[in-house]
Design a protein that fits this description.
With 608 residues, the protein is an alpha/beta fold. The chain has helices at 21-29, 42-60, 64-70, 72-76, 81-85, 93-103, 111-122, 124-130, 132-143, 148-184, 204-215, 227-231, 278-281, 287-295, 307-316, 330-337, 436-455, 483-503, 511-514, 535-540, 577-602, and strands at 6-11, 33-40, 188-190, 252-259, 264-268, 275-276, 320-321, 342-344, 347-352, 366-372, 394-401, 416-417, 465-470, 561-563, 574-576. Strands 1, 2, 4, 5, 9, 10, 11, 12 and 13 form a nine-stranded mixed β-sheet that branches. The chain has a two-stranded parallel sheet with strand order 3-8. It has a two-stranded antiparallel sheet with strand order 6-7. The longest helix is centred in the first third of the chain and has 37 residues, at 148-184. The protein is globular, with a radius of gyration of 28 Å. The protein starts with 5 loop residues before the first strand and ends in a 6-residue tail after the last helix.
Length: 608
Amino acid sequence: MTPSRFCDIVMKGGITSGIVYPAAVFEIAQDFLFKNVGGTSAGAIAASLTAAAERRRARDGSMDGFNRVADIPNYLSTDSRLYHLFTPNASTRSLYHTVVSLFGRPRFQPAWAAKWCGLVWAYPIASIVGGLIGALVLAATLVGHAGGAWFVAGLVGAAVTIIAGMTIAIVIALVRDLLTRLPKNSFGMVTGVDDADRTSLAALCTWLTRELELTAGLEPGKAPLTFGMLWDAKRDVGAEALPKIPDDPDVNLEMVTTNVTWGRPYKFPTDVMFYYDPEELRKFFPDHVIEWMKQRPRKARADHLDEAAHFEAAAKQGKLPLPLAADLPVIVATRMSLAFPVLLSAVPLYEADFSTPPPAGGVRVLEPLWFSDGGISSNFPVTLFDGPLARWPTFAINLAPFQPAYPRKPDEAKNVYMPRTNAAGTLPAFARFKDMQGFFGAVADAMQNWNDNTQIHLPGYRDRIVTVFLDKDEGGLNLDMPHAILTRLRDRGAAAGKLIAGRFKEPSTVAAFSQHDGCAASISSLVPPRAGSTGVARRSLRGSDPRHRRNAGPPIPNRPEQTCRCRCAGEGHRYDRDSHRRVGNARRRTAAPIAAARAASESGLLAA
């Protein structure tokens, strides 16, 4: 049976940690229709797949898309498919194996020995060259037939020389790759398409493009899934692009990326004009995606007199304007959000620098704008769909490390957390460290996540966030996680989805709340078509008890009731004492915001 209630969802970035999301989304989809879906980095992958599945449900009413999404962890956990998604390009293969060795799960103990052996495996030629001098010392020791202490000293000296020489040679080769090969590969090791076999489904973007098309109910390899296909699920695939997002789209997908050239985040899809080089983007996307974009160029607007001239000048430089948002393939925006620095190459778009004087010929040269991971600027954009007043809940899935006092439990349902009371979820998590590596890691985390970390503890936000805890060998840069760990993360994601869906499963009504001064009686007439949620609006429509969700709701069952003693006394209103106390507190905190909303509605500032 198709659910009748809407929800929004936002998912945090975390590279391979995103393996928890498909199972969580599947559980939530049993009880809710996804209206607005968003995420960053790995969360953008899950968001795009969720939107594709919802598009298919809106089109034919089936759960086939969500069933396919739920099966993704099983698919990636076999035959090392998750590891092979990050297929490096030929020029950066050694550097990629270095990152896996240094930051991934050690294959044996001690860990330092495993990491060093991984470096030797990544740079075999450099290791051989570096070890030649030590090998000569070893040969001289063995040939010399020296005995006693001199022989032992020669063996030790040869071993030290071999190890030191190999290490120095590896470091030189590593620095060479970082300074020369990495910039040539768009400042990353993995573009997303296997340059040895462009049709290989093992590579990230090739696999994800096909998966989005199949999940959305499209024929793979023909037309890529676009934002317009999400907005209007029943619209013909080949129809002319919608000029803008409808007032009531079937599903709205948004994700965050970071324009590091301009030093600011961007939300995609966007109406901002950018240009692209079709041949350059072939390194990142399958051929049919690029051909789709070329066949649906953005047309110059009649009221922008210089736009046609700009398009013509860009074409002479081999650049085309990005298609309209409705025609933009979802995979393009997803890959722009998923670009973890160094691991995944940044995606280049182009624009002219109008802050400088025009050149003598009057034609400005388009310069690259490098779009990297959305998590650089906002790794957990929990406010992505917030609005003045909320009509349905906005769920959010957070990722966090286990705390020493609360280690991982065998029961995965105990490895996820969601506040149950108004006082819960208010305390910050400690980032403990004793060395410089930990200190610099904490500094980077503070620079990246200070805004998100502040937001998630506020009332109206913390009670709709479920946190999935991860061990050091789970998620992150652990690209080669074994089947057992991937299965564990899948089950943990399912537990998170069940928790948040169960908490918000039964709908509430504003009826009880509206009886207190009648301040919520006309709320439904104030809500705009695209309804997200803010802390103020959320508090105004419900008490602090999460079971009340977006409003005060009816009395909690199985509790003694008594006569109401508030200002509605004498109206025969009966209530639960604990529940009513929360209702009264919510009313007192939010009378002014709701009165302001009513005034705005009467003055025509808010559309019904």
